[in-house]
Every structure is written in C-alpha cells, then in structure tokens.
Amino acid sequence: MTFSRIELLFSAAVLLQVLTGSTKAQIFGDQCLTTFTHGKENFVLDADESLKEGATFISSPPVTTTKDCIVSCCKDRHCNLALMENGDTEGSIKSCYLFDCLYKQKKVCRFVRKEGFNNYVLTSVFGSDLDETVPGDDDDKPPIASAGQDRVVQPQDTVTLNGIQSQDDKKIVSFKWHMLSGHPFAVIEKTHFDDEVIVSNLSSGVYKFQLTVTDSIGQSNSAQVTVLVLTPEQSNHHCLVPKKVGPCRASYPRWHYNAVSEKCEEFNFGGCKENRNNYLSQAECETACDGISVMPGGTGRRVTPVLNQVENCGGPCQPDQFTCSSGCCLDRGLECDGTKQCSDGSDEESCNELNKQLEKLRRIPVDESKVRCTEPPNTGPCRASMTKWFYDPYDRTCSRFNFGGCNGNDNQFDSQDICALACQGVTDKDVFARRGEFERLDSKSDKGTLIIAVLLGVAIIVLLALLGYCFLKGRKERQPRHQRTGVNGTHATTLEDTEKLVYNSTTKPI
User: Fold this and answer.
1) Locate the MANSC domain: which residues (predicted)?
2) Residue 256: exposed, middle, or buried by beta-carbon count in 10 A (0-12, 13-18, 19+)?
3) How many angstroms separate the CA atoms of 119 and 83, rounded?
4) Which of 210, 349, 438, 497 is buried most, with the most CB atoms less than 10 Å from its CB?
5) How far from 285 is each of 156, 172, 235, 367, CA to CA, in Å?
6) CA of 305: how far to CAs of 229, 279, 308, 495, in Å?
C-alpha cells in the first residue's frame, strides 16, 4: 500500500503542527518556571486561617510532577502559590493545590511547618519575603513603604489613604503621595497626619497612587495602591449579584450587599469560587456599595441590573472570565453556581471535586500555636496606642510593641507572661517569613524600652530630690528656737521678734 502525495503532505503538516505545539508548550513551561521561587521545604498552608483572611482556593489540578503543578499555576493569572504534597520519588507529587494569596494586594496566606509538603511562590509577590539579605547599613536599614490595601468605591466618594503601616528601624521623616494614573481632576489634600491624604472628586475608573517614604539618612522606598471607582456595569458585579456560598462546604464569615434592603448583610461563605459581591468586613462592603438601589423610589443611586449570564463565543476570554471547554467565555463568578451556563456544561463539571480537595487540605493537622507565634508582628492601620507583646521566634523572646487598635494579627498578647506561655518551644525553624520582618519591630521596641527606662530614671531622681528637700525643710521647722542671752543675763531680742512686737502693737484693736 502506497501513500499518495497529498496524504504525505497532510501527514507532514499534522506532525509539524504537533511538534510546533509541543515546542511552544515547552517554551511556556520553561519561561513559567523562571517566574517562581522555591518557598520553604516542609511547610504547608494553614488553609482555614488563610481563607478566613481572604485567600482564594483556585483549583487542584490532577498532575503528578512539581513542574506540571507550577505550570498549572502559571496558566491562571490569579495564582501565586503552588502547594504540593510530595510523592514517593524525586519530583513526583501526590497532590497539587493552587491559591491566590493576595486579598486586595494584602498578603494573607499563613504557613506552618509540616513534613512532606513543598511550595513554590510567584517571585513578584513573595520574593522579598523569602530574601534574607536586606540592603543598606546594618545599623540603619532602608524603610519599607506600605500604602494599604486596594479600595473599591462609588463615584464621588472620598478616599483616605495613609502610610501608617510603613516601617523603619529608625525614623521615617518624609511621606509623599502622588497619582500615577487616573482622571487628572481628582483632588488630593493633605491632612494633619504626615502620612495621610484625602482624595476626592473621583469619577468612574481605575486610579493608581504611589507612596514614597524616606528615612533620616535619605534611604527611600515606594508602594502603590489601586482605587477602583465603579461604573454602573461594575456595580452590577460588585453589588447586585446574589450572594454566593460556592460549591465548597467550609464556613467563613463574609459580607454581601443586598440591593433590595440596601444594606450589607453577613453570610457564611463555603471557601471557593466566590463572586465579587463578597467582602471580608461590613465596612468594606459599605464602602463599595453603599447607596446602590434597584428599587423604584429607593433612597440610593439606582442602578439597573444588567447581568450577562450567557456564554460569549468567537473571541479570546478575558482574565476575569471562565473559559468553557468549547473555548467560549463566561463571567468568572458564574462558575460553580449550580446552573450550567456553558453549552457543554463545563462550568459545573469539577465543582464537587473542588470541595473534596479543599476538605482534604483542611483536615491536615497543624499546630495552631506555631501559626500564631510565627506571624510577623502587625501594628495595624489604626492610630490608637495599645501596649501589646509579640513573640520573636528567632530570639525566642517576647517584646513590647504599640498596637494601633484594629486589623492586626494573632501574634499579640496582653502580657509578657501570656506571650511566653503561648509560644513556648516555637523556634526559627517554624518560621516561613524572613528574619527582617521581626527585626524592624524589635529594634523599635528596644529603642522605645530604652527611652522609657531613661525617662523613668530621670523621674525617679527628681522625685527623690523633691522628697529629700521636703524632709530637710520639715526637720528644720521642727527644731526648737533658742533665744540668745545678753551679756547682762537678759534675753536679747532678735530682729524677727522686734518685727512681731511691732506688728502686734500696731495691729492691736483699740
């Protein structure tokens, strides 16, 4: 049997296409690996704590090698953590879990030491957390700017931005804010706090602001924050879609906006495949959706619901869309909502398996005290001043720090004794974060303690001097007065006695 020339050409074309596709996949895989950093061996994610703080469980692809798990993470633009349970042979794995560890640009994943697990993290997100080398002089390290988490607001709302969580081992002397992108008629005004500005006159769009902090010797660092001012269409997704528990069956308190009651209401989120009407706090929900109404005669800004619940075909899918097996696109929030919107049903195919994999991860026993005592200390974004204690696993000591009053973490205790008891036995081997995260607050705590000690010493010296003066004065007043005797045996009158006599004689009533 012989092949015709057309058959040979067709076979060659198919083979070339396969080889080309294989080569492209190889190049993509190799490029992908360069964007990830090996985290720390024998550390697993504390799934419950991470999801409670806003981490997102993306998926658990059925792959069997470390490389394939990382490449799976690369294919999802929201993925920045590839967590693996090691297999029996080098490079093999039993399970692969993909997570987004950012909640509005705040890192919220918590790790705990556990044999048999491995992890790779996106370098652009976690690189600085794992780098033990800190540039600058050991006696004066560069500052670290913090512009806070991203915001979602309505048009004409005002937004307060601050850098109160920026850190330096000495002192930050300058905070400078400026707008990188957005509508130019936004108004930025300073407040009486050095690190704070108020932004007003905002219209729908995306605004990026940059904070640059400078320390006393001129070292500087910058951080950015994004403010999304919702359009009516975006308000549909963030405020008007129904609450979504999701296919997973854990329970985490969240808030959603109810456009009928025009209120933010609490609900229990299952742990995966949320939509955008899902907020960690009531305040965050109200900032994004307060005043939105769908009811005729409502008290707020009326928005007409326009929810696209059908697939779109014929073009590439956007990052905020789910790709059906057919190649058609669907809003990401509609995946695993219990209703098939993809014509091939692929948006509801793997939902039950997702719940099984998350439950498997949640059941891994972890030592919660080690999670608590290895978190870098967090002063929070508020401006109160409460004395708390945090545990430093590198020095194995408890140190004093000033807590701002809100949004800290669990590594804070009311006394040194409670701190030491709760964290007994926790060492640097249990820590995922780098040492520098603890050193900055340690140096501030030591400096603050030294200043307090000096002031206390001065106060004690002043008090002792005052007590000594009062004691000597009282002793002198209690001594008996001796009248001097004249040479003729009579008592001599002193000037003081004369004054008393004159006073008594001249003031005696007539």
Assistant:
1) 39-120
2) buried
3) 4
4) 438
5) 17, 33, 12, 33
6) 18, 20, 10, 101
User: Nearest to residue 405, comparing CAs of 375, 431, 384?
Assistant: 384
Is 0.85 surpassed by the pTM of this model?
no
Per residue in 142-176, pLDDT (tens digit) is 999 999 999 999 998 999 999 999 988 888 999 99
DSSP string, 171-213: -EEEEEEEEEES-TT-EEEE-SSTTEEEEES--SEEEEEEEEE
Whole-number Å distance between alpha carbons of 84 and 70: 10
The tokens for 206 are 């995306």
Q: State the CB neighbour count (10 A cutoff) for residue 407.
A: 15
CA dihedral of residues 383, 385, 386, 389 (deg, nearest 10): 90
- Pairing outcome for strands 220-229 and 151-153: parallel
Domains with residue ranges and CATH for the chain: 36-130 (3.50.4.10), 151-229 (2.60.40.10), 308-366 (4.10.400.10), 368-444 (4.10.410.10)
Q: How far apart are CA 391 and CA 156, in angstroms?
A: 43
Task: Give the β-pairing of 117-122 and 151-153.
Answer: unpaired
d(CA 48, CA 40): 20
Q: Which residues contact 358 (CB under 8 A, 6 or more apart)?
A: 47, 57, 60, 248, 250, 271, 272
- pLDDT means per 10 residues in the chain (510 residues)? 54 51 55 90 94 95 95 94 94 95 92 95 83 60 92 94 91 95 94 96 96 94 96 90 95 94 95 96 94 68 63 88 92 92 92 94 89 90 92 94 90 95 94 73 51 64 78 64 50 47 44
Greatest CA span in the chain, whole angstroms?
162
Q: Confirm if 333 and 241 have CB atoms less than 8 A apart.
A: yes
pLDDT of 93-121, one tens digit each? 999 999 999 999 899 999 999 999 999 99
Positive or negative: CA dihedral 155, 156, 157, 158: positive
Q: In angstroms, rounded to a whole number, what is the distance separating the alpha carbons of residues 406 and 403? A: 8
